[in-house]
């Protein structure tokens, strides 16, 4: 029989990872899950046919690999709760921003493997951007297994743990900045007379198309930007306005602010 896979925390990110793994072919019979919110747990159990567990210890007892997707501030309490039943060879996959592998390992007096992952919500549609780092007790086989599951939800880069705060600033929190950009783009369209639904559709497709151009042509964004920018034309005027209003600096400052907050969450 295949190992069970546990989920603790079925909020925005835990739910997205769960749905992504199921869509990627993991059988629901392998999943055992727990969330403090009973309705959320019951809904997930009914929707996906997974096994709802009465508490987190039951998840830790039943599963060999346990995805933990609770808030960073709840990690200490959660790990304390499951520590007494954790065994050598189990694997905890943590997505908590800022919480280090060492901080998780030290809660157990067993050699529990820890994999720290920074995913993002587009995992829900198979377009996640993720980074992963493995701790000292995790075997290469287990790391490869978890990475291969995650690869069904998007791209996964294995990175040294010290880069995780920067990853959080770019791709973990990144979808939110892009949504803000899409909203602003659409609002700009409405300001200039477009019907709202059409403005939103054009804005979202523009972001999707531009991202695919970067991924599929392999060209630097500056080259692609020049392709759009006709001399003396509309784009040059818009780019000048964005630069003049500090758009590139604002985005870089946002990434640094998120990375800094990630460091603070880990303290
Ligand atoms: N949202 C995102 O895009 C991303 C989030 N992350 C990380 O994912 C983690 C979860 O974030 P997010 O999904 O946004 O947060 P949510 O608050 O949406 O989800 C966390 C869930 O875990 C539940 N929970 C808390 N403590 C326990 C416990 N002891 N046992 C079982 N369930 C528990 C919460 O219940 P309750 O509400 O009752 O506390 C909640 O339902 C965080 O650590 C975050 O850093 C990482 C990358 C991206
Ligand atoms: O906002 C947060 O703290 C989490 C971590 C990355 C994305 N969402």
From TrEMBL:
<keyword id="KW-0641">Proline biosynthesis</keyword>
<feature type="binding site">
    <location>
        <begin position="69"/>
        <end position="72"/>
    </location>
    <ligand>
        <name>NADP(+)</name>
    </ligand>
</feature>
<dbReference type="InterPro" id="IPR053790">
    <property type="entry name" value="P5CR-like_CS"/>
</dbReference>
<feature type="domain" description="Pyrroline-5-carboxylate reductase dimerisation">
    <location>
        <begin position="161"/>
        <end position="265"/>
    </location>
</feature>
<feature type="domain" description="Pyrroline-5-carboxylate reductase catalytic N-terminal">
    <location>
        <begin position="4"/>
        <end position="98"/>
    </location>
</feature>
<comment type="pathway">
    <text>Amino-acid biosynthesis; L-proline biosynthesis; L-proline from L-glutamate 5-semialdehyde: step 1/1.</text>
</comment>
<dbReference type="InterPro" id="IPR028939">
    <property type="entry name" value="P5C_Rdtase_cat_N"/>
</dbReference>
<dbReference type="Pfam" id="PF14748">
    <property type="entry name" value="P5CR_dimer"/>
</dbReference>
<keyword id="KW-0028">Amino-acid biosynthesis</keyword>
<dbReference type="GO" id="GO:0055129">
    <property type="term" value="P:L-proline biosynthetic process"/>
</dbReference>
<dbReference type="Pfam" id="PF03807">
    <property type="entry name" value="F420_oxidored"/>
</dbReference>
<dbReference type="InterPro" id="IPR008927">
    <property type="entry name" value="6-PGluconate_DH-like_C_sf"/>
</dbReference>
<comment type="similarity">
    <text>Belongs to the pyrroline-5-carboxylate reductase family.</text>
</comment>
<dbReference type="InterPro" id="IPR036291">
    <property type="entry name" value="NAD(P)-bd_dom_sf"/>
</dbReference>
<feature type="binding site">
    <location>
        <begin position="8"/>
        <end position="13"/>
    </location>
    <ligand>
        <name>NADP(+)</name>
    </ligand>
</feature>
<keyword id="KW-0560">Oxidoreductase</keyword>
<protein>
    <recommendedName>
        <fullName>Pyrroline-5-carboxylate reductase</fullName>
        <ecNumber>1.5.1.2</ecNumber>
    </recommendedName>
</protein>
<keyword id="KW-0521">NADP</keyword>
<dbReference type="InterPro" id="IPR000304">
    <property type="entry name" value="Pyrroline-COOH_reductase"/>
</dbReference>
<dbReference type="InterPro" id="IPR029036">
    <property type="entry name" value="P5CR_dimer"/>
</dbReference>
<dbReference type="GO" id="GO:0005737">
    <property type="term" value="C:cytoplasm"/>
</dbReference>
<keyword id="KW-0963">Cytoplasm</keyword>
<dbReference type="GO" id="GO:0004735">
    <property type="term" value="F:pyrroline-5-carboxylate reductase activity"/>
</dbReference>
<comment type="function">
    <text>Catalyzes the reduction of 1-pyrroline-5-carboxylate (PCA) to L-proline.</text>
</comment>
